[in-house]
Automatic annotation (TrEMBL):
It is found in: Cell membrane; Chromosome; Endoplasmic reticulum-Golgi intermediate compartment; Nucleus. Pfam families: HMG_box (PF00505), HMG_box_2 (PF09011). It comes from Capra hircus (Goat). This is High mobility group protein B1. One of its GO terms (molecular function) is DNA binding, bending.
Amino acid sequence: MSSYAFFVQTYQKEHKKKYPDISVNFSEFSKKCSERWKTMSAKEKGKFEDMAKVDKARYERETKTYIPAKGETKKKFKDPNAPNRPPSAFFLFCSEYRPKIKGEHPGLSIGDVAKKLGEMWNNTAVDDKQPYEKKAAKLKESTKRILLRTELKGA
């Protein structure tokens, strides 16, 4: 901590001892601390500067001997050659209908197009969703096979 921070901490403790029942407005307290700090002599500030030097030495000692906690997980490395995740039935539906919606409503934002696609998907009958769900299942299965092959080659 800085010498000023030690001063504020000490001043706050003194204030609480004198006025234990009075709550303090932080901004007003900060202003008073700042004013008092500016009017203090170098001799008065010396006590707090010594406290800051001791604290800095403690901090430097602790950082030299600091050992990070074990078991921290590192970010998983994504293989750039790995296949992309297969699209869901909804995404397949969107890729088919997005150009139609953009053609009909060229002024719509990306978010509005997505909302419209979501509404269309929700209003689509279960039977009409089947082709998209079957295609999504096939793509998922083929992606699994590709992943298995690449894992076997790498092992």
